[in-house]
User: What shape does this take?
Amino acid sequence: MRVVHKVEDTVKILELSISDDRQKLFARVTPKDEYDLATVEDLVANISAIAPAELLEMDVIKDICQELTHQKGCESRRVARGREPQTGRDGKLVWLVRRFRPGKGSNEEREFADLFTLGLFENIEKGMEIARIYKPANGTAGVDVLGKEIPARAGKPFAARVDKSVELRGEPERNNYTSVIAAIAGYVHDEGDKFAVRDTLVISGNLDWNMGHIDFIGNVRVSGDVQKGFHIKARGSIEIMGGVLGENVLTSQQSITVKGFHQGFEKSLVSAKGDYFVGIAHGVAADIGGNIFIAREARDCQLRSGMAVHASGAAIVGGSVWCVRGLEAKTIGNEAGVKTIIELRNELEVTKEYRDLSENIKKHEAAAAALELHIGPYLKNRQRVPLLKNQFRVKIAALLSKYDEVSQSLERLRDKERGMRESKPVEGDARVSVIGHVYAGAELGAVDARLPILESVAGPVSYRRSGAQGEWNSEPFQTIKRG
Amino acid sequence: MEKKDLLHNIQEACVLGIQLIPPTILCDSIGSIGLKDPLVVSPTTSLSECFALMQKHHVGSLLITGADGRLEGIFTERDCLMKVVGKLSDYSNVAVLDVMTKKPIRERPEASLAFAINLMSNGGFRHIPIVDQDDVPIGIISVRDVVDHIVKKMLSAIYEAVESRG
Assistant: This one.
C-alpha cells in the first residue's frame, strides 16, 4: 500500500492509500481538535479528486462522517473499489453428432433399450458438419480504483488437432465459429481434442451385444467372430478375421471376407456386389456379384456368383453352386455320393431377382400340389362336381377355382423365368474344372443340358458344353482365369 | 425429379420392397441434419424490434439469452398469437422478457431425432432450441427441418434404387 493523496482541513486529516493491486482505496482519517461539522459531501469531494465517483463506497463514507462528528477517526477503511476485468470465455468445441465410444455409457444414456441396435456411432456422409469450434470471447475490461482502465484478457482459443479426414471451414464475418466438415464418409472417432473421421470401423474382438448390429457407411473389420444373430451392412467391404456363427445377414456394396468358418442356414444371407472370400462355408446362401473364393470347403451351400467360383484347394460338398464364368474346385461331392449341383447360368439367372422368382415358383408349385391333394379325383373329372351334395360341391368348386388361379399364375412365372434364361446365353467359354475328384452324385447343368456323374472321375479334368445341343463333354484340365 | 417420375419411382420402389425411409433415420443426431444459426436477442429487446428481426429473416422464433449467453427463453409465433395480438398495443415499450416462454425445453445436438420428435409431440411445440454443454444456444430445430430431412433421405433412397437398377 502506498499513500496517493492527502487532504487537511478544519475538521480532519484525510490520507488515501491504494492497495498493491490498485483495486482498493483505503482512507485514514484523523479528527482535528477544532469543532466543525463534517459533511459527507466534503468527504466525497476529497476522495473523488483521485477516484471516480461511481467506485466510491458511500455507506463507508457516511459511516466515517458520522464517526468524525463524534471526534473519532479511523485507521484504514476501504472507501472505493475498482472493477476486476472479466476474462473472456475460452473457445470451445461443440459436437453435433454422436462419436464412437465403444463400451462407454449406460443404456439409459444411449437412449436405447434394444441391445441389437445400440446406435454407438453415427454414419457421417462426406461434407457433413460434425462439430463446431467456437471462438474465445474478448472479456470485459475492468477499471482500477483511480479510474484507469485495465484491459481484459481474452479466453483461450480451443486448440484443435485435425487430420486429413476433416476440413475446417469458417466464415469469420458471419459466424463466431468454425465448422468441422467431414472430408470422407465414415464415423467420428473419439480421440480427445483430435478430430478424425474413420472410414473403416474396426471391432477389436467379437461382434456381439457390446456392439449390436452394424449398419455402416464405410468398411467394417471384425477382429474376432460375428456372434449368432448379428448382422452387418456396409457400403464398403466387410472383413471378418474369425468366424460367422449363424443366422447372420452380411450385406456389402463391395467384397465380403470371412477368414474362418462361416455358418449359414436359417435366416442367414450373404449379399455382395464384389467378391466373397471364405475359409469354410456351411449352409451359406450367398448372392455375389463378383467371384467366390473358397479356401477349404463349402458344404450344403447355395452359392450364386455373377462371375466364377474359385475353390482350387477346396471341396464342394452338397448344395448347389450357380456361376456364370465357371468353377474350379479340388473335389466336387464326396465318396458318400451326396448330391452336389454345379450349374452354369447366364448373368440374369444368378441375380437376386431370378432367385426370388425361383422361390416364388416353388411356392406356387407347393400350393398347387396341396390343392391337388384336397381336390383329389375331381381335378381330372370336373364334370362330376355338379353332382356333389351342396356344401361339398361349393367347397370343391372354390378349390378348383383357386387351383386354376394358382396354375395361371405359375404359368406366367415360368414364362418369365424362361424369358430370363433364354434372353442371354450361357458363356461359351465357361467350364467346370476339377483338380482332384468329381464324385458320383455330383451333377453339372446348363440350360437344358445336364450331366449326372454316375461314377467318380479322377482329375485333373474340365467339363465344357460343346456341340449344337450344348451337351457336356470332358476335356483336358484348364484353369479358370481370375478377374 | 418431376412429380410424375417421383410417383413412378416411389411405386416401383414399393413393388420391389425397397425401404424408402431408412429405419435408422430416427437414430440420426439432431446436429446431423444441419443446424441453422439461431436469431438471438437480449431479454430487454422490445417487441417491435423482435418482430422486425423475425420479418427480416423469415423465421418463426427468436431465442433470448442472458448476459452470460445462456438460454433464458424463446419467443415464437405462438407466443405472439397468444400473448401479444389483441392484448398489447404499444410494441415498442414492451420487452420480449414479458411475453417470451421462459425456460423452454432444450436439447443437445447429439440427441437423436427420435427423441426430438417425441419432445415436440409431447410438448406440442414446433421449435426446439439446441444448446451446447454450457447451455448456450447454437441452433434451433423445427418440425419443418425434420420433415425436410426425412424427405431428403427418402429421395436419396429412391435415387440410389433407380441408379442400382440402371
